[in-house]
Design brief:
CATH superfamily: MFS general substrate transporter like domains
Helix content: over 70%
Strand order of the largest sheet: 1-2
Distance between the termini: 47 Å
CATH topology: Growth Hormone, Chain: A
Structural class: mainly alpha
Radius of gyration: 21 Å
Number of helices: 16
Number of strands: 2
Number of domains: 1
Strand content: under 5%
Low-confidence stretches: 1-18, 434-446
CATH class: Mainly Alpha
């Protein structure tokens, strides 16, 4: 399909608000999510251990890198969202930023994931910065674009559900390959990271190019005079519904990142299941592929708020089972991960849909979806940095001789506690201030 000017309508243009978006359109638009998931999976689950054991960087410095990169994301995302909202070009509002990101990501991914032993920490930092800046250039404009695809709240749940679903599918493919290499061929972690690095470097230009060529940006009003970003962001933060969503992003992001960054340490060090990591990581994506559409339909029946409370509670109960799991029991761990996978990804799917509902409420009809996406990413990226950095610092602390007798217990607690505490806080937020409702949309906490 050929590209065409943004001002012209073609069959490839995203459907309008009153048209059900086809699965084919959702699949095509969601292609960059495959890239996002590859980066997130590698960054949170594999890279900390690779940098520590293979490259030779102290675990405390790795934790600082995890946090620092997320803080950079948190600063870049809202600014990029505002720029893509307020600075249209003849190529569109979102496309130019995504194109730049597609160039930067490979420049960071290859030196980071192919780093030789003994690489200078400064080199790793520079590569990480390039990767994350490029990542932000793609994910924030693409996220704002996704919020604009429909104004119907059930369609928005479908759109955000599709993004999570296809992201899970991408994770599943990558983990499947790593599991085969790990269990079938005994491939080293260094070789696995080289494969991940080349995959990310190729996915960035390919997926972005597909979206740029196949899709037009829908015509949406832009403010005649660009609003100052600080005033715009403060206005968002004065909205109690947005504040509640940002708090949910914080507790969700901390728990998710802490669990991901400590998973290989839990499996290999605390549960004595060496070289089982990729195989066990496969389980949750497989289950989520089946479960996410069910949760999406359920949210249309009983409301997003109720579904969120159920999913948070379910995750907490499943994670708590890991505290009593005996070592050397891969089948029992697999069973727990199957149960946990039933609620995996539900929180991010519904929180993004709620942000989309808030993003189109401007009285003057202008759209600032990119800014809303960017502001929500501030909370999420800071939370992920705190979750990853905090758990890695905790793992570094318990690696000393004084912890010999309690190390396995400490690793389990570091993995489980952020998810369990976060679930309690999230349910409290959802219940503590009454019903979530606004003009037919269950977004605002009244």
């Amino acid at each position: 399909m050929q590209a065409s000017p943004d001002s012209q309508a073609t069959a490839a243009a995203p459907p309008l608000a009153d048209v059900r978006i086809s699965r084919l359109h959702l699949a095509a638009f969601t292609l960059p999510v495959l890239l996002f998931q590859a980066i997130e999976m590698a960054w949170r689950a594999y890279l900390p251990r690779f940098l520590n054991l293979d490259v030779g960087i102290a675990l405390g410095l790795v934790g600082a890198l995890m946090l620092g990169a997320r803080l950079l994301d948190a600063m870049a995302d809202p600014l990029l969202g505002w720029l893509s909202d307020m600075r249209p070009t003849r190529f569109g509002r979102r496309k130019p930023w995504m194109a730049v990101g597609a160039i930067l990501v490979p420049l960071g991914a290859l030196p980071l994931f192919l780093a030789p032993a003994g690489s200078a920490f400064g080199t790793i930092v520079i590569a990480s910065l390039l990767l994350h800046i490029g990542y932000s250039f793609i994910i924030t404009p693409h996220g704002g674009w996704g919020l604009e695809l429909s104004r119907d709240r059930h369609q928005r749940t479908r759109i955000m559900g599709a993004k999570v679903w296809f992201g899970v599918l991408g994770s599943l493919a990558m983990l499947g390959i790593l599991a085969i290499l790990e269990r079938g061929f005994g491939i080293s972690l260094r070789a696995e990271m080289a494969l991940v690095g080349w995959t990310i470097a190729l996915l960035a230009p390919l997926t972005v190019l597909c979206v740029i060529l196949l899709f037009q940006e829908r015509a949406t009003p832009v403010a005649h005079a660009p609003r100052h970003p600080a005033r715009l962001f403060l206005a968002m933060l004065r909205d109690p519904a947005m504040r509640a969503l940002l708090m949910l992003y914080m507790v969700t992001g901390i728990g998710d990142a802490a669990a991901a960054s400590s998973f290989l340490y839990l499996v290999e060090d605390a549960l004595s299941l060496e070289r089982w990591g990729a195989s066990l990581l496969l389980i949750q994506p497989v289950v989520a592929l089946v479960a996410l559409p069910v949760w999406s339909r359920l949210s249309a029946r009983i409301g997003r708020r109720n579904v969120l409370m159920i999913s948070y509670g379910w995750q907490a109960v499943c994670v708590a089972m890991l505290l009593a799991l005996p070592p050397g029991a891969p089948l029992m761990l697999a069973g727990i991960l199957v149960l946990k996978g039933l609620g995996w990804g539900v929180d991010f799917m519904l929180l993004r849909a709620m942000v989309a509902d808030l993003s189109d409420k401007d009285a003057d009809g202008t759209t600032v979806a990119g800014s809303y996406y960017g502001v929500s990413s501030i909370a999420l990226k800071i939370a992920m940095g705190l979750g990853s950095g905090g758990v890695l610092w905790g793992l570094a602390l318990v690696s000393g001789e004084a912890w010999d007798d309690l190390r396995t217990v400490a690793i389990r607690l570091l993995h489980c506690a952020p998810v369990m505490i976060g679930a309690v806080v999230a349910i409290r937020i959802l219940r503590g201030r009454g019903q979530i409702e606004r003009a037919g949309s269950d977004v605002a906490i009244a």
